[in-house]
């Protein structure tokens, strides 16, 4: 049994207000566009209860039949400024990682700078911090497309 602890931060700039960027996380239909089942796998589940103490569940079955599940709890929400949540990932009911994440929104000339910081514990070689960082960047790029009204897929 082993644990790898890792942290990463990703910045993105979006051509919209902090309020609009924040809505990308808080409004269910907008969040669903860029986050829920991005690979289009079968049997998707997705729920969002965007409030302190609420959470999000997102899961699906890969083409080879493996079930993946994301479960989060929101710990702090300051509208248009920050979101703090913890989440775990499971594959076939086996815990692969647990993370604490902050998302910060900064109004800047011409739009919003988003800072996404994640601190995670990755278990038994079942998950990889570098892959997580890459996948998170890809999701944040999808968010940018959704905020711009572009096709996300």
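^ structure tokens above, recovered residues below v
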């Amino acid at each position: 049994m082993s644990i790898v602890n890792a942290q990463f931060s990703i910045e993105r700039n979006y051509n919209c207000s902090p309020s609009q960027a924040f809505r990308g996380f808080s409004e269910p239909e907008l969040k669903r566009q860029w986050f829920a089942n991005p690979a289009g796998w079968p049997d998707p589940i997705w729920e969002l209860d965007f409030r302190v103490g609420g959470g999000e569940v997102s899961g699906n079955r890969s083409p080879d039949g493996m079930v993946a599940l994301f479960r989060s709890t929101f710990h702090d929400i300051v509208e248009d400024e920050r979101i703090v949540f913890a989440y775990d990932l499971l594959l076939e009911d086996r815990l692969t990682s647990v993370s604490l994440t902050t998302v910060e929104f900064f109004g800047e000339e011409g739009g919003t700078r988003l800072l996404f910081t994640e601190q995670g514990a990755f278990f038994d070689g079942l998950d990889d911090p570098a892959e997580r960082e890459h996948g998170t960047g890809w999701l944040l790029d999808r968010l940018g497309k959704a905020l711009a009204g572009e096709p996300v897929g």
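The first strand starts at residue 3 and ends at 14.
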